[in-house]
Amino acid sequence: MPGSSVVEPDDRVFALRLDPQGWTVEAPAALTLAEAAAFAGIELPTSCRNGTCRACLCRMPQGSVRYAIPWPGVSLDEKREGWVLPCVAYPAADVVLTVPRARRVPPPDDNTR
C-alpha cells in the first residue's frame, strides 16, 4: 500500500513515471510531483495548487509521498486506495502516477522579449 507522511527538508532525487504515457522524469524530494513534472516540460491537471480543489487528484499505483500539510484534501480511504494530490505531494521514493491528461508543453519561446 502506498504510504505518506509529513515533509521534512531532503536533497534526494527520485524517479517519477507518468502512465499511460510512460514518461519518466527526475523528482527532487524538495519539489511537489506537479512541480517536478513542470520542470521537465510536462503539465499535470491542476487548479488551486494547494490541495483543496482536487483537480490534480490521481492514482499512485507505486511509490510513496509526503505532504507539507498534515491532512491535504484526500480522505483516509482515498489514501489507502492510492489516490494522491500531486500539487502538494512530495516524493518519498520512486513514484508512478496514472495521469491520462498529462501533456508535454513546449518550452517558452526566447523571442518573446
TrEMBL record:
<feature type="domain" description="2Fe-2S ferredoxin-type">
    <location>
        <begin position="14"/>
        <end position="103"/>
    </location>
</feature>
<dbReference type="GO" id="GO:0046872">
    <property type="term" value="F:metal ion binding"/>
</dbReference>
<keyword id="KW-0249">Electron transport</keyword>
<protein>
    <submittedName>
        <fullName>Ferredoxin</fullName>
    </submittedName>
</protein>
<dbReference type="GO" id="GO:0051537">
    <property type="term" value="F:2 iron, 2 sulfur cluster binding"/>
</dbReference>
<comment type="similarity">
    <text>Belongs to the 2Fe2S plant-type ferredoxin family.</text>
</comment>
<keyword id="KW-0408">Iron</keyword>
<keyword id="KW-0813">Transport</keyword>
<keyword id="KW-0001">2Fe-2S</keyword>
<keyword id="KW-0411">Iron-sulfur</keyword>
<dbReference type="InterPro" id="IPR012675">
    <property type="entry name" value="Beta-grasp_dom_sf"/>
</dbReference>
<keyword id="KW-0479">Metal-binding</keyword>
<dbReference type="Pfam" id="PF00111">
    <property type="entry name" value="Fer2"/>
</dbReference>
<dbReference type="InterPro" id="IPR036010">
    <property type="entry name" value="2Fe-2S_ferredoxin-like_sf"/>
</dbReference>
<dbReference type="InterPro" id="IPR001041">
    <property type="entry name" value="2Fe-2S_ferredoxin-type"/>
</dbReference>
